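pasting for the record
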Amino acid sequence: MRRVFTKIGSCAAVAMLALAGIQPAQAEQFDGAARRDAADPPAYFEMTDISRRSFIVKIDKEADIKHARDLVSGTDRERPHLLGRIIKRPAPFNPGWSYHFDPATLGFFDAAIEVCDATMTYVEDHLDEAGGAFLPGNLWCPWSSKLVKEVPAP
């Protein structure tokens, strides 16, 4: 019985995190003041985690690009980790991986719940399980994620 409550609590926590962390970013797309100029190109950043592997992230919102650049330069230390939904297919800008962050759902965080935490390699090894009990809703929030540098567009 305790296990059932734990799973229900985890699912509820992910749902709340999704509503708190993802929807504002999506709602921002419809806010006239927050729209980015269509001519602004996306930016690409190399991310790493405790596995020390390289993972490329596409960021297309102007405010998030600025925040990412500030993190890389060291001028900002707030919300240093990445959070978003994964798409379970390769992307040309992220070679070597079978998945990538959906840029429309990408955000930053200081702390998050455990149910969405995993290393890049663990996600790759268990990608077929993502979206169920593992990374519910495909929401991924690697606690040890860190942007290392901006990289050229592919």
